[in-house]
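for the writeup, i need someone to sanity check this before i put it in the appendix. the sequnce is what the collaborator sent (i think, or maybe the updated version? ugh). structure was predicted straight from it, no edits. if anything looks off just tell me and ill rerun, i have time this weekend
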Amino acid sequence: MSELSGKRRQIIEGAVAEFQEHGFSGVSMDRVAARANVSKRTVYNHFDSKEALFRAILDIMLEACSEAFTVSYIPGEPIQDQLVKLGWAEGQLLTSRDFMKLARMVVGETMRDPDLAAEMNRKMDHMSMFNRFMEAAIADTALDAENAELVATQFVGLIKAQAFWPMVFSDDIISREEMDVLIDDSVDMILSRYGK
């Protein structure tokens, strides 16, 4: 969210707090304006509805994910170093206070709205990068596995089990130092099972 400026950032931050506290149906544009310390007219100048405001928040989260998830497997490079880099694609988001604030809000809403959860799954599709990475690593014989999707799911699961899910239900985030250890441990576990 740091790229947002001025009033728009204030409105988004106020809205995130409102959605977290009251859920989509309970959000009032008046309260968003009050939290953002702007007039209701200013809110509507930027967002013509509560739905548009919520979608803007989702777009910010999706953009952050698409910027982070750009790691590709490089044939011949040490697999351990590449897995660490892959882990940090996820780790840089999970150590961002702004991203985790958005994630808490979105998780809360998707738990209330199955259709929104399905839409988010379709749009995010961040597992495809992990799947492609593992497929390429297996094809290059850097990993000894048959099911790239399973390896990708296990790798992401090792990270999220400690750095995402516990933090979604608190107001905390994992530190970069803790994430460093967690990624190293996760890489070691994957290599102990699938390494050559």
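The chain has two domains: 1-57, 69-194. The chain has a mean pLDDT of 87.
thx in advance!!
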